[in-house]
């Protein structure tokens, strides 16, 4: 999902671009700031409410001033554009005029364009064409293009552009800027770029429109290239430009370039407005530099924008210190500077989820109820996902059932929770409920259900879900095809998995690896090798697969040969590669070679061995009877040895008859499961003093009932 915080920023960018465009190029020519001796116009300049305007209007009608084009235009301008005005009433005034000038029409069109129903601006434009002798001018069309951009209606924009061509305004820079902005806002970036390239004259608004179009649709690289081109053309950036650049760096998570743009803001002396500070905070948070994000936030003198708080809270909620998100939220409440919004609450649930603190989540949910956000589906999804992650499935289901608003993400959060905690029956039942309620499953939902069938090895149901994907018309994307292949392989239908594999137009490394490992699982090792050889651009994961397959299948020397080939072609092995290599050495009993590879892991490739590497080496030493070397390796481990390591040493000692070391390993195993009957029974079979073991079980309060049947 595109992140909602990016969507919010996009709206801010788009709003700022539009306002900058309107006030700089469309409205200023009509704003009369002359001093007139008429006292009514002086009063109109100072008007602050509709009630005052009514009184002024009645006086203008009485004195006849209302018939003056400029005076009536000023009256309409206040009514249409003022924060306390009313575009609908300005429309009534317009209709009362016998032959209003184009300025008056443009003011009302602009007022409607910024209202909750911008389509009325288009309707008024049609009325102007049909019922008026007045004709649009080059300031009418930029406003109309802004309406089309706001509605994301490229079709309507093309119709308006047809009128532009008919009236001959296609060469006007204001109109061209409106076209570029409209096309970019509608996602027609190629058309916008074509118009941009054809323009003989460009100003800052032209560059900003296309740059922010690229940013809005996730093409940050093109936005950065266009910025460089703008600088080469000698056009100086403004606040809108820099917000777009910072958003580009956030999308790419390019901290270094983001810092460069931060320096440019200082260099060009731009004011650190709320929007610009928000963009900086967002960039630093997305790039992982929370310290710099917090410095900017703390330096802001105006923190009345909830977006400023949301960006920092989100950064903390996704970091390794999510508790700071809760702390900052408390500061927000205490400050009283702004009211939390639905997004604040959603990020807080993310923080509670990462903290695994269900109690904190309940407290946040209490605030959600108090703020009245419980009916917001975005917040609901956060609550359900948090409760599911904390294992509170019953509470999650209760919130789910009590909610009257759900979307596909609400359903899939609960379904995934049931799958994760082994309640497969509930997951399948809930999926059927989702379908019955009319909610169409998306790709993520179907991948989850297919993975469930793979876990259950339920081929029949998996085939049903495969058919459902076709019925719903979902695109067979790479992740979806990979999930289907994995399901068919685990359910034993390798032929159908190969059919899907062959049908994929584009395959990732994971696609090849799933198929290769699938052949290995069903014993078709020759097919696995053949497919590996056919793989283009083999990456580390592909080599890891074939090395691991050969090692587990007993072809130790072949596995080591593939490792040598991998290193020879210049690929750098990772921890998984060396695990496969060590397994190969274990199968072949290659102690010296295994120890050499283990040494390479740390000294040559600077990798950190994990417990599985140590366990493999202990197995290798133990199998060869080198128990002292195995024990010494365990003692040298930088992390606490786990039960798998001690268990490996224990069985090696039993095989080679080292009772003293065997006892030590067994006691270490006991520390990992002091209440487990199995370990005590194992020890009783090992020690002569069996009574001591039974006494230890009595002290620990463990039931001495055998965990095996007499027949066993």
Describe this entry's structure for a reader:
By secondary structure, the chain is an all-alpha fold. Among the domains are: 1-25 and 140-270, Tetratricopeptide repeat domain (Serine Threonine Protein Phosphatase 5, Tetratricopeptide repeat, Alpha Horseshoe); 28-138. Helix 10 packs parallel to helix 12 and helix 22 (377-389) packs antiparallel against helix 23 (393-402). The longest helix has 23 residues, at 4-26. The two termini are 53 Å apart. The model is unreliable at 1-36 and 685-712 (pLDDT under 50).
Let me know the average pLDDT: 86
Distance between the termini: 53 Å
The major β-sheet equals:
none
Give the number of helices. 41
Q: What's the CATH H-level homologous superfamily of the domain at 1-25 and 140-270?
A: Tetratricopeptide repeat domain
Shape: elongated
Using only C-alpha atoms, the radius of gyration works out to 35 Å
What is the CATH architecture assignment of the domain at 1-25 and 140-270?
Alpha Horseshoe
Q: What's the CATH class label of the domain at 1-25 and 140-270?
A: Mainly Alpha
- How would you classify the helix and strand content by structural class? mainly alpha
Poorly predicted residue ranges: 1-36, 685-712
* β-sheet strand percentage: under 5%
- What's the number of extended β-strand segments? 0
CATH topology name of the domain at 1-25 and 140-270: Serine Threonine Protein Phosphatase 5, Tetratricopeptide repeat
């Amino acid at each position: 999902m595109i992140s909602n915080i990016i969507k919010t920023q996009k709206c801010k960018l788009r709003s700022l671009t539009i306002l900058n465009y309107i006030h700089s190029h469309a409205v200023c020519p009509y704003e009369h700031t002359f001093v007139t001796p008429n006292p009514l116009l002086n009063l109109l300049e100072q008007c602050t409410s509709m009630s005052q305007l009514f009184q002024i209007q009645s006086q203008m009608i009485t004195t006849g001033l209302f018939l003056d084009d400029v005076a009536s235009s000023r009256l309409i301008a206040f009514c249409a554009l003022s924060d306390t005005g009313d575009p609908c009433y300005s429309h009534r005034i317009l209709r009362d005029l016998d032959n209003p000038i184009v300025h008056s029409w443009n003011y009302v069109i602009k007022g409607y364009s910024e209202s909750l129903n911008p389509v009325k601006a288009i309707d008024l434009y049609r009325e102007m064409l049909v019922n008026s002798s007045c004709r649009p001018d080059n300031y009418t069309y930029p406003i109309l293009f802004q309406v089309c951009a706001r509605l994301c209606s490229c079709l309507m924009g093309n119709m308006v552009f047809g009128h532009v061509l008919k009236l001959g305004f296609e060469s006007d820079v204001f109109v061209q800027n409106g076209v570029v902005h409209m096309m970019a806002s509608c996602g027609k970036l190629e058309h916008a770029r074509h118009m941009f390239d054809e323009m003989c004259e460009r100003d800052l608004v032209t560059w900003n429109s296309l740059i922010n179009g690229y940013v809005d649709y996730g093409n940050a690289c093109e936005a950065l290239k266009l910025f460089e081109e703008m600088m080469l053309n000698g056009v100086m950036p403004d606040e809108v430009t820099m917000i777009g650049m910072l958003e580009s760096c956030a999308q790419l998570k390019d901290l270094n370039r983001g810092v460069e743009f931060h320096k440019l803001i200082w260099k060009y002396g731009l004011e650190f407005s709320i929007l610009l500070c928000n963009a900086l905070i967002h960039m630093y948070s997305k790039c992982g530099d929370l310290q710099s994000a917090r410095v900017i936030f703390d330096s802001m003198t105006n923190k009345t924008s909830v977006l400023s708080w949301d960006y920092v809270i989100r950064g903390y909620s996704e970091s390794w210190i999510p508790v700071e998100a809760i702390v900052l939220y408390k500061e927000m409440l205490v400050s009283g500077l702004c009211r939390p919004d639905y997004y604040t609450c959603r990020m807080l649930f993310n923080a509670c989820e990462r903290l695994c603190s269900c109690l904190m989540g309940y407290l946040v949910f209490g605030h959600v109820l108090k703020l009245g956000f419980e009916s917001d589906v975005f917040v609901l999804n956060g609550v359900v996902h948090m409760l599911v992650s904390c294992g509170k499935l019953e509470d999650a289901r209760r919130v789910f059932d009590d909610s009257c608003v759900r979307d596909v993400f609400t359903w899939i959060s609960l379904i995934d929770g049931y799958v994760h905690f082994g309640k497969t029956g509930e997951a399948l039942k809930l999926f059927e409920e989702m379908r019955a309620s009319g909610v169409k499953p998306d790709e993520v939902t179907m991948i989850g259900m297919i993975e469930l069938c793979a876990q259950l090895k339920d081929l029949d149901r998996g085939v049903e879900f495969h058919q459902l994907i076709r019925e719903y018309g979902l695109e067979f994307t790479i992740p979806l095809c990979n999930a289907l292949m994995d399901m068919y392989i685990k359910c034993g239908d390798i032929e159908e998995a190969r059919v899907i594999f062959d049908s994929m137009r584009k395959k990732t490394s994971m696609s090849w690896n799933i198929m290769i490992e699938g052949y290995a699982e069903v014993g078709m090792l020759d097919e696995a090798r053949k497919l590996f050889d056919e793989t283009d651009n083999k990456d580390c994961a592909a080599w890891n697969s074939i090395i691991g397959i050969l090692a587990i299948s007993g072809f130790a020397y072949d596995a080591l040969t593939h490792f040598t080939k991998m290193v020879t072609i210049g690929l750098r092995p990772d921890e998984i590669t060396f695990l496969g290599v060590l397994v190969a050495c274990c199968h072949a009993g290659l102690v010296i070679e295994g120890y050499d590879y283990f040494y390479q892991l740390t000294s040559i490739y600077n990798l950190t061995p994990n417990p599985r590497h140590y366990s493999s080496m202990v197995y290798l030493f133990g199998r060869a009877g080198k128990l002292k070397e195995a024990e010494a390796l365990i003692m040298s481990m930088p992390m606490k040895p786990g039960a798998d390591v001690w268990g490996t040493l224990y069985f090696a000692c039993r095989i080679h008859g080292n009772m003293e070391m065997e006892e030590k390993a067994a006691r270490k195993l006991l520390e990992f499961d002091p209440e487990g009957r199995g370990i005590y029974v194992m020890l009783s079979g090992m020690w002569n003093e069996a009574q001591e073991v039974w006494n230890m079980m009595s002290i620990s309060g463990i039931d001495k009932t055998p965990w095996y049947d007499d027949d066993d």
